[in-house]
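Pasting as-is:
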Amino acid sequence: MKNFEKIKVLTRGESALIAGVCSGLSEYYSLRKNGLRFAFILLSIIFFFLPATVYIVLWLILPKYPSTQAMARHLRRKTLLKKSHAN
């Protein structure tokens, strides 16, 4: 049986400033939260509305950070099933 605790699931982070998208991405990819937020702001200045549109889409697509361990296990199982069906 696989260990569900080792499976990473991309969710909106629990330490959110606006919607938790940058926080979730930084936790999933092991990046610094403030560095990712700074990069988002910088890209927003350069490319205007494109980063904001991507942020809103991710906000709508990504599931919320699981508030209980049962929800976290459920998300990990779903991820594991998707990966096993893809292979």
